[in-house]
Predict the 3D structure of the following.
Amino acid sequence: EFSGENSVVALKNVTADEPFLAGHFPGNPVFPGVFIIEAMAQTAGLLLPPGSMAFLAQVREARFRRPVVPGDQLRLFARRQARLGDIHRFAVRATVEGDLVAEGELDLACRWNPSG
């Protein structure tokens, strides 16, 4: 869901059958924080120009507020804060049922993809 050209909302359903959950943590599965960061970065990447490729250049800040577990639906928010040449800075956050579970600030490097 786009809200203008500088913000976007996306969803990620966390399911029990995701293979990485078997080892993170056995008997008490938790969606890894690095995957939450990746989901927020991919959400931010939706705001980059069509035909471009995004690379996570920097995680400037990340805070995790509570675990995300199978059955949760992540609602992912990204808002462009600045652009410095090919670097786009985003404020990002993730919620579950309205509760904040993660937030941070990410830089994405944007490159034009001639085949895309």
Remarks:
- The chain has a mean pLDDT of 94.
- The beta strands are 7-13, 52-64, 73-84, 87-96, 99-112.
- The helical segments are 33-45.
- Residues 7-112 form a domain with the Thiol Ester Dehydrase; Chain A fold (CATH 3.10.129.10).
